[in-house]
Amino acid sequence: MSKESISGGMIGMEKSAANRRRCPPESSSQKSSCFQIDTTSMKTNSEGPLYGETVQRKRGSQLQLLDLPKDILCSIISRLPLRDAIRTSILSSHWKYVWRDHTNLTFSCYTLKRGSFGCVVMGEHEFIATVDGVLLHSGTGVELLEFRHPLHNKHADHIDRWIQFAVVSKAKELILHLSNASRTSLSRNMPYELPAQRPQPYSFPCHMFGASEGSYLRCLQLSSVSLKLPVDFNGFPNLKKLIMVDVNITNEHVEYLLSKCSLLEFIEIACCRMLTTLRALRPLSRLEHLKVQDCIFVEQIEMKCGLTILEYSGLMVPLQFATTSTLRNVRIDLTSDTTALDYITKGFPSTLQHLEALNLRCNEQKRAISPVRPLKFIYLRHLRLELNIFGVNEHKKTDVLDYAYLLDCAPSLEKLELHMWMQCHHEIYHAGHGELRSLPLHQHTHLKSVYITGFFGHKDQVELALHILRSSIALKAMKIDSRVKIIPGGPYTSPAIYRTRHYLDGYMVATVFVQGADRNNVVEVTGAIQYSFAIIDGRARFCLISEPEF
Q1: Number of helices and strands (H, E) in the chain?
Q2: What positions does the domain F-box occupy (predicted)?
Q3: CA triplet 33, 35, 39: central angle to 5 degrees?
Q4: Are strands 539-546 and 300-305 parallel, antiparallel or unpaired?
Q5: How distant is the alpha carbon of residue 99 from its chain centre?
Q6: Which residue among 30, 41, 121, 309 is the one 20 to 30 A from 403 at the CA level?
């Protein structure tokens, strides 16, 4: 027998065995049926008429993008970045003008000229020419018109044409960001930058928005411009969102502007150097969210409105709101050296006792004086404190145990967060410091969750943690972390200034003194270290294995 016949027989046996494996072994009729199915499938996959008809039917039923209704096609195009939407014009003659229905026009170096490694810097003339070219061919019905590039008053002729385009196209959202500086850099450089060092800002043309033209605008964002309202200003009767960052505007014009925008729901004012007072004496019945940040010369805020959310960053100033205020959520970042306790007890408006959530960030350099008659926040459910504790000559004067007072002034508190940044002399608690102090226990029946970070094992930190643990009868979870969670900012406030010993000491002290006093198994101690635990000479020792990761 030849090798070829043997090989052919082996192949035939393998095919036969394969067919048998595909068929159930019950009967020969089933085997025949199985073979017929395989044969049919083989014919179906051939280049016969059946296969050709199937392909032709599938090809004939394909849906082309251009067959979609115009409103759906416009919606798809508007979701593309402007640069990509314009590039669709080269696909075919049918696509040549589709991009003109793009309803969101965002002009910046990111959307107009991207390179392999991000955006490419565009000069003033190139940016202006590109915007002019796009707006020349763009259609109407624009929803969003956004310009982001460092331009000034010398470019007013070009910017005026862009604003006029927004008016004619009845844009609902207009964003004019004429600076390349970030919000952080604006805040940081503001106290040191002289007006003569800045180019003359573009003057926003409010006169272009008449009674009918201004009614289409729903959102207005202005940055690094000058704003002066004409006497016959009609306002923006349907404006819901107003953001002004680094805008040259006076107290009187802000008050006048707000009086002409009665439907406002959100206001943000930041880094405005000319403001000394922020007033809205006419009721803003729909205003829910007010955000004021880094207006370093503001001395007073007075609003007659039913706010729900307030965010404020700056010096401690009087806050005056309507006596029927519905304010429920407040975040305050005080840049002055005012303790959190002093602000809560003395600087906080008495009309805001209906708060449900308070986030307070303060710089602590001195010890607060507890008031004789504490202010009660009977509705407060969530309190978050961010304390930057600085020491004079590295020795701190702040006593963290004083914050036990907060349990008394917020009897309904359910969640407490205490985040500490301690830039002072590091001294871990030991027996030489004397016995731990304890305050009279007032059973708190609502507090369920406590989260403490920046726990370095100082004596007053231990005392506060123990007081909270013993006073909170409904407590379900107390997490203590030796790592820092907040960073004040500045060149000398990196987490790297803390040695590994800080985290190890905090972990050790929290484990021994706080977790050791836990009778309900609610305390969890964490830290950014790996350690080993051993008993050496009858004493507990924590040994560092690896450095923390920053």
Answers
A1: 14, 24
A2: 62-110
A3: 115
A4: unpaired
A5: 32
A6: 309
Q: Is the pTM of this model over 0.90?
A: no
| pLDDT tens per residue, range 52-88 | 444 454 454 555 665 656 566 666 666 666 666 656 6
Distance CA(502)–CA(421), nearest Å, equals 12
For the residues of 428-461, what is the DSSP string, one character each? ---GGG-SPP-PPP--BSS--EEEEE-----HHH
Stretch 83-101: mean pLDDT, rounded? 56
Both tokens assigned to 206: 């409010």
What is the 3-state composition of the chain as percent helix, strand, coil, each rounded to the nearest 5?
35, 25, 40
The pair of structure tokens assigned to 109 is 């170096």
Q: How far is CA 367 from CA 201, 340, 347, in A?
A: 44, 10, 16
Indicate left, alpha or beta for 438 from its phi (over 0: left) and psi (-120 to 50: alpha): beta
Strands (E), 195-328: 202-203, 219-223, 225-226, 241-245, 266-270, 277-284, 289-293, 300-305, 309-314, 319-321
What are the φ/ψ torsions at residue 327 (nearest 5 degrees)?
-60, 125
Measure the CA–CA gap between 169 and 216, rounded to whole angstroms: 10
| 3-state secondary structure at position 196 | helix
The answer to whether 451 and 417 are in contact (CB under 8 A) is yes
Residue type, 177: H
Q: Look at phi and psi of residue 108 and say left if phi exceeds 0, alpha if psi is from -120 to 50, else beta.
A: beta
Distances (CA, A) of 153 to 156, 166, 243, 274: 5, 19, 20, 18
- N-term to C-term CA, the chain: 77
H-assigned helices in 329-381: 340-342
The C-alpha atoms of residue 85 and residue 76 are separated, in whole angstroms, by: 10
Q: What percent of the chain has pLDDT over 70?
A: 66
Q: Is 414 exposed, middle or buried (0-12, 13-18, 19+ CB in 10 A)?
A: middle
Contact yes or no for 498/453 (Cβ under 8 A): no
What pLDDT digit, counting tens, does each position of 133-167 carry?
Answer: 778 756 566 788 999 999 999 999 999 999 998 99
Q: Residues 315, 318, 322, 327: is their CA dihedral positive or negative?
A: positive
**The predicted structure's pLDDT at residue 292:** 96
* CA–CA separation, 429 and 431 (whole Å): 7
Beta pairing partners, 523: 478
Separation of alpha carbons 70 and 103, rounded Å:
13
Q: What is the DSSP letter of 393?
A: T
**Tokens 């035939």 -> residue:** 12
Using alpha carbons, list the distances in angstroms from residue 370 to 42, 145, 436: 90, 53, 20
Q: What is the Cα–Cα distance from 308 to 453, expressed in whole angstroms?
A: 29
Per DSSP, the three-state class of 354 is: coil
CA distance 231 to 226: 16
The encoded tokens of residue 154 equal 């010398």
